[in-house]
Amino acid sequence: MSAGWICDVCGAGYPVVGDVPWLLREPQDAIAEWRARLALLTRQLGDDASRADRELARLTDQSALPDRTVQRLQHLSEANRKQVALLENLLRPLVLPGVLASVQRGLGTSLPIEQGLTNYYVNLHRDWAWGGEENDATFTEVRAVLGSQAQLGRTLILGAGAGRLAYDIHEGYAPPLTVLTDYNPLLLFVAREMFAGRDLQLYEFPVAPRGLLDSAVLRRLSAPRAARGGYHIVAADALDAPFAPGSFDTVVTPWLIDVVGEPLAPFAARVNHWLKPRGRWINTGSLAFNRAPFAERLSLDETLQIVTASGFAPPDLREATIPYMRSPASRHGRLETVVSWSAIKREAATYPAARRVPQWLTNDSVPVPRTAALEFESVSSRVHAFMLALVNGERSVRDMARLIAEQRLLPADEAEAAVRRFLRRAFEASEQRDQY
After folding, report:
1. How confident is the model at residue 52, as a pLDDT?
2. Domains of the chain, residue spans
């Protein structure tokens, strides 16, 4: 980590991690959380390798396993262990020796699950390994709403991910400045390597493997060539991007507006804010608002109405059905109907208020209030801690329930069911692979 950048206006400092500036309101907190996620992810990969080894040993003892099953489990174990080394090498600036993954898991992180290191992991391989057809289809839609002779000027690409569309725009339209932003260091570091013309190797773990060894496929990630100059890759929050009003001639939002975590109306106002007068908003991707409240699960008509109400002229619009995440090693893949538009800023929109954060979270010296939510967590944690302390390899569910009732942590007629439910959840959690 280097000393970083200093804001000329407010004097705030922003670190540079792995050559990527972290232009976030609380950069040190975000870096600490990503480090925790990386520690948990590498721990999970190691656990998966050990689990494959244990299953192989147990099943071999019980019966003669088919040779191909043995080969698959050995391959999966080896791939998981090698993936740890590959990730730690790529994300070396985030690696802290001695991080206690179990403690980090217990304390948790505040990052939304959509921002886990691996939630968009398959995009890395689609962008830079096997996804030529998909990448070309997406760029074709952008070109169709832009026009081949368009002059983009200073261009901001929000939620650029691993960066393939950003790369194609930067190389295909040659804007004088291209700024790529994302929040995920794995995606940003891969984009950094690809734009620099350096190859990477990472394993792909397909959802539904096609063949015997497709459960883990070592991929070579590479760009057609090193990108020309004039680009910057930065870590930034799409809902709080640190750019002055009117900084850009073009803002691109690829596969973002339905997952950004904010209703479209205030987000569209943010895009308007960063654009110069007569600037252009290019959007492409899905309109799958299905995880939002019902009122925000917008149809295309509603979406366009919000865009025009946010200071944009009626957009030039395209709809197309394109292949999506169709890895050659996976039986899982689909066609997706995407919406692309080019909308010109015709008037300024009111910039939405900043998201409110309690002062006790932003000022380390302010006392933390004893809220009802924290009181509930306190009681729940005490009960759970006591339950775990009772597990000694000798006590039964009934024994544990009796002791909990004696401590008056739960009524006697509820304790046994509560213990059983708690242990069942712990067992089920141990069988699942978390996403970090």
Report:
1. 94
2. 2-111, 116-344, 370-431
